[in-house]
Write a structure and sequence with these properties.
The chain has two domains: 3-211, Rossmann fold (3-Layer(aba) Sandwich), CATH 3.40.50; 220-340, Methionyl-tRNA Fmet Formyltransferase, Chain A, domain 2. 25% of the residues lie in helices and 23% in strands. The protein has a seven-stranded mixed beta sheet with strand order 3-2-1-4-5-6-7. Strands 8, 9, 10, 11, 12, 13 and 14 form a seven-stranded antiparallel beta sheet that branches. By secondary structure, it is an alpha/beta fold.
Length: 341
């Protein structure tokens, strides 16, 4: 029996969905289609500098399209915000990609408390950027976990899990979209298990503190390449940091030329076998990471840490459009001392 079929056989709950980003939208829409009732959506307030548009809020857009009431408190744990949610008499809070940690008082407004959909195999990658860190760390697989919420960040019992391999060329944006869809059934299953346990029950499996890893929010500076890292790490960085903050470096093309900031848009690790793209770097131990070893229409081969090489096949020079290596080289002559860094 599928989770959605199970839901129809059990008590329908009144649910408040809390979310802001796109990761929450598939779950919200699935709950709308289920026997459960969405009483309201709680999302982050819209703030924008004077004269500018506020940042995108996919959950607000989805709630507007569905005609669902919207609450947007500055701080969900303020007494006024808690009272506004409590006035809806929800049975359960479903939280996903919201951006604030709920206090015990906020969680206590619903008899079943709250569940949270998280984009990792908890307890691995607790934090704000689990999808990006799964790729950065070279994980073979990841998934979506639904936890029974506690005031500690991502620390509750794991109620339902869906696991998937990470594609060898998959970006964070692509993986996040897949996990958001996979999380739908996990959330519906978790709701069924909560109903079966009755209010106050604690279904699920406690997380092992010894297996906890952190996935902190990324900053713009995290996108700047350290060429002393192995090529495989930089390739994963390029995929993990799409669409933000992206992977950037500076091209020092030659004497008397100012450095040019570039975004690395398509890169690959160079084969280390004798049939690889460039000469074996082990015979040139003094090569400086970031040095451009060769450049042709196939790409710019760059020295990286641990005697590895990365080929840059597509890039975006500052102020220019995206271009292939061949297009770039037609407009940029590189001296023998050219390097990234």
């Amino acid at each position: 029996m599928s989770p959605s079929t199970l839901s129809s056989a059990k008590r329908a709950l009144k649910i408040v969905v809390m979310g802001t980003g796109p990761f929450a939208v598939p779950t919200f829409q699935a709950i709308l289609r289920s026997p459960h009732k969405v009483a309201a959506v709680v999302t982050r307030p819209a703030h924008a500098p004077s004269g500018r548009r506020p940042p995108p809020n996919p959950m607000r857009d989805a709630a507007d399209a569905a005609g669902v009431p919207i609450l947007a408190p500055e701080r969900i744990n303020d007494p006024e915000a808690i009272a506004a949610v409590a006035a809806l008499s929800p049975d359960l809070l479903v939280v996903c990609d919201y951006g604030q940690i709920l206090s015990p008082a906020a969680l206590g407004v619903a008899p079943y408390g709250g569940i949270n959909l998280h984009g990792s195999l908890l307890p691995r990658h607790r934090g704000a950027a689990p999808v990006q860190w799964a790729i950065l760390e070279g994980d073979a697989s990841t998934g979506a976990s639904v936890i029974h919420m506690t005031p500690a960040l991502d620390a509750g019992n794991v109620i339902a899990v869906r696991e998937t391999p990470i594609g060898i060329a998959e970006t964070a944006a692509e993986l996040e979209r897949r996990l958001a869809e996979m999380g739908v059934d996990a959330v519906l299953e978790a709701i069924d298990l909560l109903v079966a346990a009755e209010p106050g029950g604690t279904p699920g499996v406690p997380q092992d503190p010894a297996r906890v890893t952190r996935a902190p929010r990324l900053a713009k500076a995290d996108g700047i390449v350290d060429w002393s890292l192995p090529a495989a790490r930089i390739e994963r960085m390029r995929r993990a940091l799409e669409p933000w903050p992206r992977t950037t470096t500076f091209l020092h093309a030659g004497a008397d030329r100012p450095p040019v900031r570039v975004v690395l848009e398509d890169v690959a690790v160079v084969d280390e076998s004798p049939a690889g793209h460039a000469a074996d770097l082990t015979v040139v131990p003094a090569v400086i990471p970031g040095s451009i070893l060769s450049a042709d229409d196939a790409g710019l081969v760059v020295a990286c840490g641990e005697h590895t090489r990365l080929v840059v096949r597509r890039l975006v020079p500052e102020g220019k459009r995206s271009m292939s290596a061949a297009e770039f080289l037609r407009g940029h002559a590189l001296f023998s001392t050219a390097r990234f860094g």
